[in-house]
Amino acid sequence: MKIADVKANAFAMPLTSPAFPLGPYRFVNREFLVITYRTDPDALREVVPEPLEIGEPLVKYEFIRMPDSTGFGDYTESGQVIPVSFQGQHGGYVHSMYLNDHPPIAGGRELWGFPKKLATPQLDTEIDTLVGTLDYGKVRVAKATMGFKHRPADHQAVLDSLAAPNFLLKIIPHVDGTPRICELVRYFTTNVTLKGAWTGPASLELHPHALAPVAELPVLKVVSALHFITDLTLDLGTVVHDYLAE
Fold first, then answer.
1. What is the CA radius of gyration of the chain?
2. Could you tell me how far CA 105 lies from the centroid of its own chain?
3. Which residues does the entry assign to the active site, renumbered to this chain (predicted)?
4. Cα 46 off chain centre by
5. Are strands 73-86 and 116-118 parallel, antiparallel or unpaired?
6. Cis peptide before 213 (omega within 30 of 0)
7. Backbone phi, then psi, for 6, in 5-degree steps?
8. Pairing state of beta strands 58-69 and 73-86?
9. Mind listing the pLDDT tens digit of every residue in the chain (246 residues)?
């Protein structure tokens, strides 16, 4: 293989059989359970990197069921997104993500910098209740419940939240173990079709775990809950801050 061939074909690991295909990445019937809760502001300040800024001490705990995603297949995801602002622009900082499918783990980390780890999240309907669970190995880390489709939610508010930017801390090490890339990345979701949105009573419990520390942002009070289904495109990102350039 010639040097020019390497340069022409290198976009992901491994070179001759990449773990994920080139985008765009389109998701159909993406189902969300999002529980917003109030947490300890000091704990938030410990994990949100500058130059992002936090306002109210809120966290959005998400379970996302993705049955049809371009190149990534059928999988489920769970994690925490923290409302933040960057230079006056409001959005969300993706703090943790756990999922059960290798291609989106590899692609999410390598392309955008999503903080993805392998685990076993599930989102199901049990009789009259939407139930989300996250297990890390055999250990239960999170459980959320919500009354199934109790009341319609404000569609415009959901669309506005999906149109807001999200931020990621992308870290890729050098071969000597020092950071080679350390960047704040911003990305958007686009081409959104909202197929339904509901709210209702909800609960959330988080359990301590050494390697899945979602409970380090403790649940002080559940503020709201949303269940919605969308089609959307996950756009590629842009670098808005390079930590190594300072």
1. 18
2. 11
3. 116
4. 19
5. unpaired
6. no
7. -60, -50
8. antiparallel
9. 999 999 999 999 999 999 999 989 999 999 999 999 999 999 999 999 999 999 999 999 999 999 999 999 999 999 999 999 999 999 999 999 999 999 999 999 999 999 999 999 999 999 999 999 999 999 999 999 999 999 999 999 999 999 999 999 999 999 999 999 999 999 999 999 999 999 999 999 999 999 999 999 999 999 999 999 999 999 999 999 999 997
The answer to whether the CB of 37 falls within 8 A of the CB of 223 is yes
> Phi-psi category of 127—alpha, beta or left, where left has phi over 0 and alpha has psi -120 to 50?
left
Tokens at 119, concatenated: 């685990």
H or E, element range at 65: strand 58-69
116 given a catalytic annotation: yes
DSSP state of 16: T
On whether the CB atoms of residues 122 and 142 are closer than 8 A, the answer is no
Amino acid at site 103: P
Three-class secondary structure of residue 89 per DSSP: strand
Q: How far apart are CA 17 and CA 73, in angstroms?
A: 17
Which residue type does 139 have? V
Give the active site residue among 116, 117, 138, 195: 116
Q: What gap in Å lies between CA 165 and CA 160, rounded to an integer?
A: 10
**Buried b vs exposed e over 25-53: b needs ≥16 C-beta within 10 Å?**
bebeebbbbbbbbebeeeebeebbeeebe
Residue 60 to residue 74: CA distance in whole angstroms? 23
Angle at 152 between CA 146 and CA 158, to 5 degrees: 85
Maximum distance among all alpha carbons in the chain?
61
- At residue 42, the 3 state secondary structure works out as helix
